Amino acid sequence: MTDLPKVNLKELKKQKELNFKQRLEFIDKYSDWLDKTPNKKWSKQQKAMIDINKPLKLSSPAGKYNIKKKD
Amino acid sequence: MEIKIIDNIYYINNKLITELDTLVIDFISVLDKYNIKYVIISGYVAILFGRSRNSEDVDLFIEKINYNTFEKIWIELCNDFECIIEDNMKDAFYEYLNQGLPLRFSKKCTFIPNMEIKTPKDELDIWSLRNRKEIRLNNNHKIYISPLELQIAYKLYLSSEKDIEDAKHLYNRFKNKLDNKLLNYFVKELKVTIKFRKYLL
User: Fold this and answer.
1) CATH number at residue B65
2) Chain A residue closest to B201 (CA)?
3) What pTM value is reported for the model?
4) Could you tell me which residues are beta bridge partners of residue B10?
5) Containing domain of residue B156, as a range?
6) B22 & B108 share domain
7) What is the pLDDT of residues B4-52, one digit of tens each?
8) Residues B170, B173, B174, B180: what is their CA dihedral angle, to the nearest 10 degrees?
9) Chain A, nearest residue to B3 by Cα
10) Beta partners for residue B144, in sequence order
């Protein structure tokens, strides 16, 4: 294995913290938008986002794959 | 976002119902039918109030019930749901719910999202069930959730990035409507004062 990147954990930690800070800032911005947006409008966007992950039906009951406590 | 709070009931109207909302509404309609007291405690509370994320499960506490009652809800749930943890009704009750272990129910032939039910274990759980808040969704569906003051502090206690974001979302939504004494109590008791100041204020 050649040319593998060096991992800079200190830098990654900094980036992770910055990313989280930016996500919290987004929540504030999103909150401001929610404040002035009617329920019908914001929920339309939320529905589009949530329902895109509409549950996929399995070919047989999911219970068939039960992982029981006693196993 | 328009939320009206009248007589301690939160009214959310004109919300488009998502698949996740439908899962919750269908599940709790069975609990309501048999007058089983429940409270939703999970990230779904933040999602119900507009948070821009999805969830693979919805957590709720139900009051302790006997086997006869459990049998009734199990049979009723089996019309539309399946228990993905245990398919034997007796084992589901005696080896899981009655032992304080959670059960997960999903719509038939799906794994996710699912409803995770458990019985209250400690004083906080019992308090949240006793003091649950009523939501009226689109003037049609009644949904009971944990008091927001506890929900916010508890999310900070759990403290994953997702949980802190949920707490921030709920705090932003309701900061002028919260019972600050109650919120401070839970923040102090759960020892999340520093996180509260750092992330929410």
Assistant:
1) 3.30.460
2) A28
3) 0.93
4) B5, B135
5) 147-201
6) yes
7) 999 999 999 999 999 999 999 999 999 999 999 999 998 999 999 999 9
8) 60
9) A39
10) B134
